Amino acid sequence: MSVVIVVGAQWGDEGKGKVVDLFTERADTVVRYGGGANAGHTLVIDGKKLVTHLVPSGVCHPGKSCVLGDGMVIDPQTLLEELADCQARGLLARGELLVGLGAHVILPYHKLIDGLREDRGATKGNAIGTTRRGIGPAYEAKAGRRGVRMRDLYKRDRLRDLVRANMDELVPLIVHLGGTVPGTAEIDSWIEAAYVAGQKLAPHTGDAGRHVARAIAEGRHVLFEGAQGCLLDLDHGTYPYVTSSSTIAAGACQSAGVGPTQIDAVVGITKAYATRVGAGPFPTELHGEAGDKLRVAGGEFGSTTGRPRRCGWLDLPALRMGVRLSGMQSLALTKLDVLADLPEVAVCTAYEVDGRELDEPPIDPDDIERAKPIFTKFPGWGPLPTVTREISDLPPTAKAFVETIERMSGVQFCLISVGPDRMQTIRLHDPFEPSRQATR
Ligand code: IMP
Fold it and tell me: What ranges do the domains of the chain cover?
């Protein structure tokens, strides 16, 4: 039995979809535990693209149990669309999806407020650059103990009372933000739509925490699939430019309701470079042509919003922070192939702030904005061999690049992805076999 958490080690979009898909071969149960439809995983099944926002990336392996934990915020309409899309492809057909009854529900007013705040922020120059999926407002309601949970969808009167009470409080805010206050008929249509969605989702809901606990007790392999990345963590990320949930490994325990002693391994995922969507400090960002080139080579456009991602060099101070925050024992390196055609590749090994060298980002976001990255440069290594299965198959400079990251992050790679296909992967060790991790 092994229980493994996989988390993004940067600002999200590290290529978790492919890695989780590969690890799911070994897992019986795959659990998403935080965030909501702000995430986007692009999967290719039989040549056809499937983008999931809520359903775990493990969905492509029929027969696995896919769980959405109680710490998530679920947009019922998005979930129904994904479910229909998956079932049309013969996936999730046999009751393989379980949504926690304690998960909170995203309703149209959460998205309305998210969008209004972003519009207002854009005029004042302080927008977060959220996905506008209602994530922040739904978690605010949860923390304020007035949220609507999945279990509330089945009780029409309770649902109506909750939504109306929320709207009474939110009307002044909507006015303040310059929005149009929804009328009673519109609010009633939201309530009805949520109730109908609840009826359709009812066969897929239950006690997610106990389901996962049972899987662990029965000795099954359980994979926790993180969303976003460690540097977007509400408590430890580059606040306020973060998401509203716990994205570090501890979030898996908190949100799925599993004790930390149950976890056997934590794997971080990092791209061979860095990207960020939305606002916030990004010391290694490449502007102009250099950034554009990396964006196009890596296809760095958001799978949820389509926004162009900000691109830059791999940032080891930020990666070290992710490693520390999540206690990562190994890393998966993705998109090494994207750097193949560049004449030169750089890695930021430390920051310089006011004449001091720092190996992790400073606490104050203003200091991160001022941080000067210190780079180590590598000559470009050109196209990777068609078959790249071992580290020794890599061109010498690419190998040196990989070894530098391992040495300077203090963590070994368990997997290196050299292309989107499953076959384009160097597998070094299996996180479900922790005892074998130290063999390289
Ligand atoms: P929210 O989660 O929609 O509230 O957005 C807050 C911040 O997190 C914004 O900068 C988003 O771009 C970022 N974010 C949220 N989800 C993802 C993701 O899945 N990948 C990358 N960035 C994300």
Answer: 3-93+208-436, 104-203
Q: Are 241 and 128 in contact (CB under 8 A)?
A: yes
Q: Which two tokens stand for residue 100?
A: 């926690």
**3-93+208-436 and 104-203 in the same fold:** no
378-406 pLDDT per residue, tens: 999 999 998 889 999 999 999 999 999 99
Report residue 271 as tokens: 């791209």
Ligand 1 centre and the CA of 304: distance in Å?
9
Spell out where 327-371 has E strands: 330-334, 344-353, 356-358
> Model confidence over 168-211: pLDDT tens digits?
999 999 999 999 999 999 999 999 999 999 999 999 999 999 99
Q: Which helix (H) or strand (E) holds 311?
A: strand 310-315
Please give the distance, rounded to the nearest whole angstrom, from the Cα atom of residue 133 to the centre of ligand 1. Answer: 9
Q: Which residues line ligand 1 (CB under 6 A)?
A: 11-13, 38-40, 128-131, 133, 135-136, 227-228, 232, 241, 243-244, 277-278
Tell me the one-letter amino acid at 346. A
Give the strand pairing for 222-225 and 29-32: parallel
Residue 237 in tokens: 């990320």
Sort 249 into a burial class: Cβ within 10 Å, 0-12 / 13-18 / 19+.
Answer: buried
Expressed in angstroms and rounded, the spacing between residue 228 Cα and the centre of ligand 1 is 7
Show which residues are catalytic: 13, 41
pLDDT > 70 in the chain, percent: 98
**Dist. CA 312 → ligand 1 center (Å):** 17
Q: Which residue is closest in CA terms to ligand 1's atom 20?
A: 12
* Ligand 1 pocket test, candidate residues 16, 41, 110, 130, most atoms within 8 A of CB: 130
Fold observed for domain 104-203: Adenylosuccinate Synthetase, subunit A; domain 2 (1.10.300)
Beta bridge partners of 32: 68, 225
> Does CATH number 3.90.170.10 belong to domain 3-93+208-436?
yes
Residue with tokens 């935080």: 34
